[in-house]
Structure formats: structure tokens, C-alpha cells
Amino acid sequence: MTKWWREVRRRLGVAAAAGLCVASSPGAAALAVDVGHTLAAPGATSARGRSEFAFNLDLARTLARALEDRGFPVRLINEDGLIASLQARPQAASGTDFLISVHHDSVSEHELRPWEWEGQALNYNDDFAGHSLFVSRDNPDTARSILCARIIGARLQRMGFVPTHKNGRRRAYADTQHAVHYYDGLAVLRHARMPAVLFEAGIIKNRDEELLLRDEARIRLMADGIATGLAACLRNGLPADGEAEADARP
Ligand SMILES: [Zn+2]
């Protein structure tokens, strides 16, 4: 059992022993939600000219709300898009129990095709679509990172979201079925002192998927799936409220 997990169990155990609902307890595991990229370096540009940062911000804010609805204290990192460095992200997450970095995927330069949208010369690729997840073996809790990633992936697939396997061409799988990949060098994951996952929500160069990724109802649905997965992962193995007393009933 890792130090991190002992600490979470200890805190949750204290909350349960005090007769508190874990879901509303200040002792519940805290999560950091990182908005990928910055205003100055906003990542890829979508098929219709929107920055990846704008997509990341929408999903990260919605995910933070979904986690708060489940009783988790949440720290939203880089909401203003002004964070100084990649290392500053895990530093900003310090003291939380889990870090998820929210991104949207693109394709390689040579896979792009030109097109025009509303008078703008842009590019696209419709060959790939879907989400994927990344973990680092240089993170101090790779096992918990993989577990949470695969539970998020499983939950999303159960809801009908289909993952992409395009990243399997370059990144080894930690879990093939749920499109969880190793990406050891990712700074945000490797410098984190807590388990960490990078989530790619979909491919913004895909003209159909871009529209889905901008749809508010679908963003809420995806955030709900991720939050449900994280809740399952972080509370895994803990007794439900009242379970300790249940055996003592006459
Ligand atoms: Zn990104």
C-alpha cells in the first residue's frame, strides 16, 4: 500500500468514524484539475480555428463542478491561462491527492489537409476520433495513476464514448482496451507528487468531433463520466456510509 493511499484511507476513515457523510466531509480526497496549455501557447488549433486551450478550459471547469457535486474539494489549476511553466502545474497541485490534466488531441503535421472555413485557410483530419489517457512511470504512484485512468476509460466507454487508438502507434499501452498509454516524459505527470493522469478528450482537427467537443451537453456528459470514474477509483475499497454499524444491528 502506498503512502498516498494510506493517507487518503486515514482521512476518509476519520470522516467515517466521526459519522460524517464522506461526500460532504472536508477530509475527502482533494483533486487538482489542470487546464492544459496557456493563453500565450494555446496548443493546437481546431479545424474551425479555435484554440486547444479554449476547449481545455470548458471541459476542466465542467469537470471541476462535477467533482465538487460528488463532494470532492477541487483545485482548478491555470484557469487564467497564465501559469509560468509545466513544472508549476504539479507544484500548484501540491497537497492534493490526485491530479488530472485536461487536454484535447491533434494529429501530426503530415496528416493535415487544407480547407477553408468562413474565409479562413485552416487544416483538418477526419481519420481519427476519440479520447485517450496517459500515465507516467516516473510518477511516484504509477499503479494508482493507471487504475484511475482505466476506470475513467471504462466508465466513458460504458457511456458510449469511443476511444482513439491513434496514439498506440507511438505510445505503449498500459491498458489497451481503455486506451491508456505510457508517456513517461510528460512533465506534468512526472513532476507530480501524487498520482496523475493526462486526459485527451478528443481530436479537435476532426471536423465532426470538434463540434461534439464544443457541445455543452456532451461536455457535461463526459465530465460526469470522468468524475464518476475518479470517485470510484479514489473511494475504491472504502466502506459505504453506515456499513460499520450494519453488522451490529440486532
Ligand atoms: Zn494539449
Automatic annotation (TrEMBL):
<dbReference type="GO" id="GO:0030288">
    <property type="term" value="C:outer membrane-bounded periplasmic space"/>
</dbReference>
<keyword id="KW-0378">Hydrolase</keyword>
<dbReference type="InterPro" id="IPR002508">
    <property type="entry name" value="MurNAc-LAA_cat"/>
</dbReference>
<feature type="domain" description="MurNAc-LAA">
    <location>
        <begin position="85"/>
        <end position="231"/>
    </location>
</feature>
<protein>
    <recommendedName>
        <fullName>N-acetylmuramoyl-L-alanine amidase</fullName>
        <ecNumber>3.5.1.28</ecNumber>
    </recommendedName>
</protein>
<dbReference type="Pfam" id="PF01520">
    <property type="entry name" value="Amidase_3"/>
</dbReference>
<keyword id="KW-0732">Signal</keyword>
<dbReference type="InterPro" id="IPR050695">
    <property type="entry name" value="N-acetylmuramoyl_amidase_3"/>
</dbReference>
<dbReference type="GO" id="GO:0009253">
    <property type="term" value="P:peptidoglycan catabolic process"/>
</dbReference>
<dbReference type="GO" id="GO:0008745">
    <property type="term" value="F:N-acetylmuramoyl-L-alanine amidase activity"/>
</dbReference>
<feature type="signal peptide">
    <location>
        <begin position="1"/>
        <end position="29"/>
    </location>
</feature>
